[in-house]
Write a structure and sequence with these properties.
Bound molecules: inosinic acid, magnesium ion
Strand order of the largest sheet: 5-4-3-6-7-8
Shape: globular
CATH class: Alpha Beta
Oligomer: single chain
Number of helices: 3
Helix content: 10-25%
Length: 181
């Protein structure tokens, strides 16, 4: 794999699609065995997780539902600042086992919003599964149930993740080329 250029930055190969596929298979198997006879609803957080959702769901062999939502920023009151709301959720989640599928957890701000949003949905259980995780950046006291691959604090693109709109179509993961990489 060669370096690629997106906007004015160069990105170098980082994680191959075969390694991603392996990590996803492992996650699906683990969740399957943990949930046993539960019939979960997987909720993918768009846009970044669209490839992950599609590949994950094909590896999950038990009965399940799948849905997609988007988190949209809107201006809250002066005291709350910028908060997010969920767009696109039609299902009644009362009493259901919900598994959130996220592309990447970085600071955990998004995850914090997700917990806040699902607080009043009366779900039976809320599980979090993320394909990528940056442990060096994450400082929240929130539980992440399933992690595909932990990565260093690098900006990555590909496999659904974008850099200012570009790079989502790449099957492999690339990292931002810096002075020392
Ligand atoms: P957090 O709220 O800081 O945890 O960040 C979560 C969101 O930021 C993800 O869903 C991505 O959309 C975006 N993000 C974080 N790190 C990266 C990255 O390395 N590449 C591309 N997008 C990222
Ligand atoms: Mg995202």
């Amino acid at each position: 794999m060669n370096a690629i250029k997106l906007h004015n930055n160069y990105f170098i190969p980082f994680i191959e699609s075969t390694q991603i596929a392996k990590a996803i298979k492992k996650m699906a198997t683990q969740i399957e065995s943990d949930l046993k006879d539960e019939q979960p609803i997987f909720i993918g957080i768009l846009n970044g997780s669209f490839m992950f959702i599609a590949d994950f769901i094909r590896q999950y062999k038990n009965n399940c539902e799948v849905s997609f939502v988007k988190l949209a920023s809107y201006q809250g009151t002066a005291s709350t600042g910028k908060i997010k709301e969920l767009v696109g959720l039609q299902e009644n989640l009362k009493g259901k086992t919900v598994v959130i599928l996220e592309d990447i957890i970085d600071t955990g701000n998004t995850l914090e919003e997700i917990f806040r949003i699902f607080e009043d949905k009366e779900v039976k259980a809320l599980k979090i599964a993320t394909l990528f995780f940056k442990p060096d950046v994450f400082k929240k006291d929130l539980n992440i149930d399933y992690i595909g691959l932990s990565i260093p604090n690098k900006f990555i693109v590909g496999y659904g993740l974008d850099y200012d709109g570009l790079g989502r179509n790449l099957p492999d993961i690339y990292q931002l080329k810096t002075a020392n990489s």
